């Protein structure tokens, strides 16, 4: 579906997250969607032209497509600051790489990765699952980003 949506005037992508997966006692780095079942589209089209394009696309292809909007006027589902935040986390392949850090007392210090400098946005960490939960929400959902805690001081 993503390849069908790509054209000269738009880029479709699924934001992915690198994370560690354990199978048969071994650890592997895998990529999983940050938002399963969502496709993001970057375009220069205004919302009216994009609505028309999406309507025509849905007429020519089978499947269920629902466009997310912020209001009745058809404003983009992502606010500009949300889009900028997501782009800051992702690399050129729309993947959020795993960050690494350590715990100093009750503080989290990120050493490497896209979360570097964003310690104040981390609401909670799950050391067992190697996940950081960020305060900033996109699409009404909390953001889970891969975080390896190397040590606790």
Compact summary:
This protein is an alpha+beta fold and 153 residues long. It has 3 helices and 10 strands, in the order αββββααββββββ.
Secondary structure: elements and pairs:
Blueprint: H1 2-5, E1 10-13, E2 16-23, E3 26-33, E4 40-43, H2 47-60, H3 80-89, E5 95-96, E6 99-104, E7 107-112, E8 122-126, E9 131-138, E10 141-152
Parallel strand pairs: 2-5, 6-10
Antiparallel strand pairs: 1-4, 2-3, 6-7, 8-9, 9-10
What characterizes the major β-sheet? 5 strands, mixed
Roughly what fraction of the amino acids lie in strands? 35-45%
Q: How many helical elements?
A: 3
Strand tally is 10
When the domains are counted, the total is: 1
| Sequence stretches where pLDDT stays below 50 over 5 or more residues | none
N-C termini distance: 46 Å
Helix content: 10-25%
Question: What is Rg?
Answer: 18 Å
In terms of structural class, how would the helical and strand content be classed?
alpha+beta
- Broad shape: elongated
